[in-house]
Amino acid sequence: MKAKFMNHYTIEQQKCIQFFPHTHDVKQHLLIEAGAGAGKTAVLTERIKWLLINKPKNINPSKLFIVTFSNDATKQIQEKIEKEISKDLNISDALSLIHISTIDSFFAELVQCIYPTWWESKQKNTFQMPPRLQLIEEDIVCQELKNSIHHFFIQHHFNDIELAYTIDFILSGAIKKSFIDSQGTLETILKTLCNETFLASSPEHLRIAAKEIHPSTPYLIHEFHKLARNEYEKRIIKGEFTYSDRALFLKENLKNNIPIQLQELIVDEYQDTNHIQHEILFRMVTECKARMIVVGDPKQSIYGFRNASVDVFQNLKIQNNWEHIELKKNFRSQPNLLNEMNLLSHFAFSWENPNFSAEFKNSYFYSEAKKKFTPENALEAGIKIDITKEEPCVHLVTTSLNKERFFSDIDKEFISQNNIKLEQYSLAVYANYIKEYQKKYNTQWNEMVILCEENKDAEKISQALKNIHVPVLNGSQKNKDTESSLEYQVALSLSRCLAGENDLFDLYQIMQSPLSHMTHHDIEKYFYFKKCDQFLENKIINIIEEHKIIAKDNFFKAWQLLRWKLVNLHNDFIKKSNASLFCAKMDQFSFALSAKLDSPHFRETLENSIADKINDKINLKNKNILPYPLRQWNVKSSSHIDFENSNSLEIKTVHKAKGLQWKHVFFYPKYGKLKSMGKFVSSLSDSFLDITWLQDDVENMSVLKRIRNEKFTENDMNIEYKPNGEIKKSYYFPNLRKQAEQDFERQRVFYTAFTRAQENLILLQPKRLKKDGFRDEIGKITECESLDFQNYLEEEVFIKYLDLHFKLRGFPKTKGKSAKNSEKKLPPEPWLQQDQELSPKNILNENKKISYQEYGPYFIKKFLEKKAENSNSEDIKYESAFSFNFFKEKYFKLDNDFILEKSNHEQIEKDESISKNNKFQNINYKIDHFKKNRERISKGILYHAAAENRKATLNSLQYLIEKISIAAFHEFEVWIKTSNKNNFLNTSRHIVDFLGILNPKDLLNLPFNEIYNLSHKEIENIKNKIQHIPINTKILFIIDYKTGNHALSHIDQIKNYMKIFSSINGFPEVKLDDHENSQFIPLGCLCYNNKLQSSNILTLDGQNLPFYNLMNGESIYLFI
């Protein structure tokens, strides 16, 4: 099958199709370097057809294997081969015999074939059957390795010197766990220990790549290697394999044991292989005396984080037995666009990181990193130019909030007061630009794509587009709502409780969820007793303990029974129905749990651990079996919908866009600053696996002197000094090597993104930490200055491309005596942009193929006006207020997202039918936003309220109020309606630091004489005020704690709380003698803590407000 724009195959393509060397030829294998859009899939399809038709070649279809690196690629090539071969009846039957699979499936089948023989050789009792092979997840292996490391340090017999060295090394942070998952030293070590490259290395090939090392490092790294190998052997003897284990197993056991007959092996996307995969595949081909055809593009090797190594592909080019053919013609993109792609790629591949010192570039580490560098290789046009198209093919959009681009101080102050970040402004601009672009070019949404480098950027721009009702399909999302879904969090908490691995927050998650029958008051009471080490009977805890007995024998059964048992605790039918719905939503987690328990070893270890904890009544904190946090469970979102055939705008990461194409591609790069490399870095070199461990920690707690490393004598660091001799900065070459390799891979990411476009490429300015955009950066450069390498790759590409096509540079400053009198010359437009209205002017370059729009600070007012219009309908109206218990009694949950009033259902349905379209256009965004906000609040304020309340200190204001209160509440929760609609999204939630209910006369027992009356705007005597309060009235003493300087804005906040509480007409959970007739008067109190000695006194309405200093240092202001 010919590619879409091919009239015939090129000479190079024909050579690839008809490559068939004689047995005496040196070059027996073929390396096809196919550039983006070069029609490689069409070439491979045509080659397979040619092999099958060409009978003299004696190709047996059953001995023809095609291997790809993704399911999508396998499906694509299978469909094309089937379509092409089915046209010829003579060879149509051959399709079922050709083996087409991913490399993971291919390796799995090979392991399945040779494992029984290997297993039998390891067994003394030959009558046993080999175990069923299981694919297990890496996080399970990491957890087992973590436990093994723990046991190693406890049980290993260190001599006195080794013990001292090891303790010092650990205290220095060598095995430090991070608060952020997957970024700590321990997490990096665990991932390295289960990596096939590390496991495949012999102890002699492990080398600490540093001149001076901690004395414990050499033997610890070898002990860890031995430990990792032991765990690997335990896994495979039980038939449990990770993806890495499969590759290692084949590398070590495939010799002279090839289970298949092979004539030709075709491997697609070969630039994504690593050294072990290449060794396995090439060994098979060699032993079968077969032929190997590999296809790839080294400029699209972007899977280094998966252990892919582009130097595998590059090294084949210089091998004598490999024929190298380049396919450089691009049949995807329009020629005008292709020229600009080549130019953009030139800027990307030519960039050198200016932060790398000359010492590093001359070092061993940089020479190793350079092996991962891919030089630019311009593509050639394979299709004819469309002379009828005169529109721009490349569009650039930049933003800026640079205050200096305003003349007036008022405008400059406007930017500061609104405190809008450039990223926030940019996302809103891009969303509107994309929407207008679609209208202008009258294109379908599914003909467009937004490519990002990271998932978090894709999430942000996806949200901005949803806000303006653009149909979005975010293909970069990892199980969309999994992280924020309460049902999955509660499901994990139930699992941890059954396993005895829970903490207090797990219990709190369960108790405050719809699954629980407990009220907020019950929850707070439970945790208060827990805090005081007092026992309080609790049904949920009792049921969990009962089901632990079942869990020790069948964990999955216990988990399933437990969640539905909790549902049955509800007495109210409506609440029970909602609890059932919530419980049903946990089913996706149950699939993930079942997948974990498919591993016999994991299941046995977990259930034995539960049994040990039950029998011994001990808490084995260091023996956690279940993965944590939730992201390690790979739970699929139940709300996921397949929009594959719908007309939606796709948002993808560049990695997921490989092999795909769109007419219009928007590229939104990330901010270029790299994350820390960590304290444990491993890099594969020609003869060694180089490891550095805690080398860059200058301020570590080690008391031992580093020793000289005899196995490594190269320079490993460079230090810059200040004029006074102090260290200015240290550069650690192993870390810089990793950074250089990531820089080289990022160049290839940019190239991959550019080459997805067929007709138009739109470049969006990436996130910046300052308010200046790329337009501002170019404006700082004058015509006579040279443009050096920028700090980050995205800056290099954008700034140099803009500078090449548009005159944006500033003018030199006037020097000498005339400098004071001369008027400062502003950079050329777009700068002030005051003559423009709704959007900036579209500027074209000389050949009118490049367009540029700069959204400067002049447009920020329009952005805020639009934002205000959208939020007007959401202004808070204090129509009524409810405590949390009131709210729960009056409302019930529906589908976990909405709360509807029990009464007046018909009116609600009527309102919904009238505004159905308007209501649901933006409802998903609101729900997502609400869920995230609820999660943030739950993990912060609510948990603090339930579990972390401490007893008030003596002489504090809280102690005085609690002493005389009828009832006191910590972190009291208040719900208010923000509109007339009875919808959960139309409510607002407030939390008061402390609330006390007092009899008015009890105020006389407090050391306060005066209070400020907000209504009368005057200071009043408290004793006189109390005399005029009716007998059946109670005081709501509201405390708002502050830690900053005394400020008038704090008074507004306490007034807000007082206004909310003025509408509360009862507290059914508080026993009052005259409950039905009680009235409530809110009394507000600002309490500044004793950590701040502030000299300023609050002044309101021209009066100094009365304040009091308590013995513990707290400053008090009272309002009524």
Quick summary:
With 1120 residues, the chain is an alpha/beta fold. 40% of the residues lie in helices and 16% in strands.
Look at the helices and sheets and give the structural class: alpha/beta
Please name the CATH architecture of the domain at 394-403 and 419-477 and 648-676 and 689-787. Answer: 3-Layer(aba) Sandwich
Overall, the morphology is: globular
Q: What is the beta-strand fraction?
A: 15-25%
Q: Compute the separation of the termini in Å.
A: 83 Å
- CATH hierarchy, class of the domain at 394-403 and 419-477 and 648-676 and 689-787: Alpha Beta
Tell me how many strands there are: 38
Q: Radius of gyration from the CA trace? A: 34 Å
CATH topology (level 3) name of the domain at 394-403 and 419-477 and 648-676 and 689-787? Rossmann fold
Strand order of the largest sheet: 15-16-14-17-23-13-25-24
Mean pLDDT: 82
Binned, the helix content reads: 40-55%
Q: Biggest β-sheet, characterized?
A: 8 strands, mixed
User: Runs with pLDDT <50, length 5+?
Assistant: 1-7, 638-645, 871-922, 936-950
Number of helices: 37
Organism: Silvanigrella aquatica
Domain UvrD-like helicase ATP-binding: 13-334
GO cellular component, one term: cytosol
Keywords: ATP-binding, Helicase, Hydrolase, Nucleotide-binding
